[in-house]
Each structure stands twice: as C-alpha cells, then as structure tokens.
Amino acid sequence: MIELSPDRIAAAAGAEVTIAGKGGRPARAVADSRELVPGDLFFGLPGEHADGGEFAGRALAAGAWGVVVEPERARSLASAGAERRAGDGGGWVIAAPDPLAALQALARAWRRELACQVVGITGSVGKTSVKDICHAILPLRVHASPENYNTEIGLPLAVLGAPPETQALVLEMAMRGRGQIADLCEIAEPNVAAITNIGPVHLELLGTLEAIAEAKSEILAGLGGRDRAVVPADAEALEPHLHDRLVTITFGAGGDVFALEWSGDGRSIEATIGTPAGEQRFSFPFGEAYHLTNALAAIAIGEALEVPLDEMARQAPRITFSRLRGELVELAGGIVLVNDCYNANPVSMRAALDHLASLSAPGRHVAVLGEMAELGPNAAGYHRAAGSHARQLGVGPIVGVGELARDYAPEAWAPDSQAAVPLAEAMLEPGDAVLVKGSRSVGLELLSDELIARRGTAEQ
Questions:
Q1: Distance from C-alpha of 55 to C-alpha of 149, rounded to nearest angstrom
Q2: CATH fold of 6-97, please?
C-alpha cells in the first residue's frame, strides 16, 4: 500500500487531479495494464511500440485505483465519461506532462516516506544474485527489486512496491550508458552503495573498462558521510573513484569480508567467513564458487547495515536465486541440467564453466553455449577464449548457438535456440552434466524448457 493521499500523490508526481475518484490509497504502481489488479495505480507511459496511455480507460474499467496519463489523454477520459464512473466509485485520473518523470518523482517521495535503509547494487555481473542473497540473509523486513526491475522504469516500480513497514530496501541498478546509474540514484537515494565487480560488459556501448568503471562509480557520487560503499578488494579500476571521505567496506581475498576457508561439492558450500566483527561459519545452499563471492558482497552489505554476523549465518540456508540463474535440475537418466541462461558475458561464462567442471558426474560435462552480446570489436576473441577455457577444463562436447558462437569451436552449431534443441537432446547421454548459458538475446530458456519437457525430471 502506498500510504499517501491522492493530493500528495499528485503533488509528489508533479501532476494535477483531473477526475477525483473514490478514497483510499493505491496498492502499488504498475506500468503494464496486463499486470493490473483492482486497486493499482496505472502509469500510462509512452513506449517504443505503443503508448501506454491508450490503455488507461481499460485500466479504470478493470478497477484501477487511478491512472497517471498525459494531460490530453486525461481530458479525453473526462469527456468520454470517466468523470461519471469516478462518481460511482471509480478511479482517479491524474494528468502529468511526463508520466515517466511523474513515476520517478513519486517513487522518490515514497522512498523518503519509508525512512528505511536503501541499498543500491550495481556491477558487471552478480547484481541479481547479491540482491537475492541480501533478501535471504538480512534479518530485517526487506523489500527487494522483483526479478530485473532495475531500469528507469523498473526501479521506481520496485520502490513503490515496498510496504510501509519496510526496514531495508534492496535495489538492483542496471547500466547501459553514462548517467543511467546517477539517474537511478536520484530516485533511490541509497545509504549503502555496492559494486559487485567491473568486467567487459557493454563494451560495445562504452568502449573501455575504465569507462565502465566510471559509469558504475556514479553510484558512489551521492553518498554522504554516514553512508557506506561496498566494493571488491581487487577492483583496481575503481580506485580513482574512491576517496578518503568515503567509508568503504571491501570484500574478497585481502578485503574486510573474506572466506578464511571453504569447501564444497558443486551443490553446497561450507565456509568460515571473516569480517571486522569476527568470524562465523556459514552453510550455503549453492555450489558455485562465484556465488560465494556474491555472498561475501551481501555479507559486506550486512556489515554496512550493522547486522550481526551470526544472524546472517542463521539465515544463509534460506538463500534462493531468481529463475534461470544457475538452477540445478535433475533430469531422467541421471542427467544434471545447470540452467544458467538468463544472461552471459566473459566473466560469468568463465565462472559457469568452472562450476560445470566442478560437478561430480559419472558422464561428461556438456555445454550449450549461446553467443555473448555487446562485446564490441573483440567479440570473436572473447568467444575463442571461452571455448579454449572450456577445453582446458575438460568440458565437451559443446553446442554453439548464434553466429558468434561459432568462435567457441563447438562440435555442433545452430543459428538459434529452436534449431539447437534437437542437437542438444541428441548429444546428451545418461549421467551427463549439461550447462545451458548465453546472452539474454539468444533466449536459451526455450531450449532448457524443451529439454526438461522432453527428457522429464528425475521425480517424474
């Protein structure tokens, strides 16, 4: 529930009430009319292919608490009889010159109303996983960004979805160019700013690792004297953006939060974590070494929030990850599917291949690898390096998917996910472990879903 009066909502959004609706407060904000349920506040945002304002009338008819649309659209709703419906207990119509700016301004107002701790998380890889781990281990009333609500539209929707009793708001922040993180921070005003890592992601847009580090470091710019920065201990590219006035907590080898020792079987990890507050044993329900690094980042965020280490350890077994991020699925015939197809870049691809190779399997370690997007002029080299790393680990055979995937030197190749399904299915043998990973644009979840449907799971 967004506990603001209609007048305050309009004022905070820089908008005006065109039609007064019934009382009460909106449950949440939505920008997709297909997701709307009665009581929601619908923002009619202009889009690349359609103007969301066109669906405002339908949203009101479906029971929306209200709609925020451009003034001309608001006047059209009034002349079409929305005013009469509002008098019968219908929704509010609020006119805003720029509905997206109104959404962002309202989110900032609600963030301030909550008066809770706000954590912003960005980085080349691991943002969502660190957010998921924070959601599990912080012994607070945590509201976290759902799925990939991490853009100029998704982040304010995530903020407005936070209930009034929220104690910690954990927000993922995406970056596709200079200034985007700064814009998101203007909305979220984080008290704790975390950067998971700096890697060759979005090189096609920004050109160099230094430019990527500069763009990611926008999350640090607005921090005040009582705020905290959480950064990897080995991220030299971030050093020019850190300063003496900034209180910084580092994680990883040589950092403030680190793994004294750990062991795992590819499915779970036991680790002793060291921090400035002491040491604590953690039992993690994941087997990937890269997720251990993500856990260190989340524990460092907990340290920044002054959360007791033992309480975080108690909650660690509750960790679950968003779909398509390293899911282990047991298929019939003793085949283990590592469903990690949400996205891929050179850093995450190498880490996923390392994890695949670490899995104990009586059969082979097979990989279905989609191409990696937005890598700039050296894209072919990054793909060759990933293929070479797979061979060094003993991973094979490999199915490549997408034009750039030819550079993995795969045993089989397909132009798209649909065409790759029969190749992957024919290649699998009982006892194999198979990794499915590629950039979002490849859509490899189609392939993983098909493999699960055709092969069946171990429980079936």
A1: 21
A2: 3.40.1390
